[in-house]
Design a protein that fits this description.
Number of helices: 3
Order of helices and strands: EEHHH
Strand content: 15-25%
Number of domains: 1
Number of strands: 2
Radius of gyration: 16 Å
Shape: flat
Distance between the termini: 31 Å
């Protein structure tokens, strides 16, 4: 996806994300598209952090979070 780039440190590790909103708009992406992308990214980061810290949720807690977010009924 154009308009989204990673910032790398001296070791070549991804340390930040740079989002060019003007480029995304030029590519026909709406603000809603960008917000949905950010929400998806937030979910991915939460899962990764959980994996790194070994903090796993039980199924009932996971379902509650998904219901709270409106992902499931």
């Amino acid at each position: 996806m154009t308009g989204i780039n990673f910032v790398l440190n001296d070791k070549g590790e991804k340390t930040a994300l740079l989002i060019d909103l003007a480029q995304l708009k030029q590519d026909g992406r709406s603000e809603t598209d960008v917000m949905e992308f950010m929400e998806d990214l937030e979910d991915v980061l939460a899962v990764e952090l959980s994996r790194q810290t070994n903090e796993y949720s039980n199924w009932e807690d996971a379902k509650k979070r998904l219901r709270d977010k409106g992902v499931i009924d």
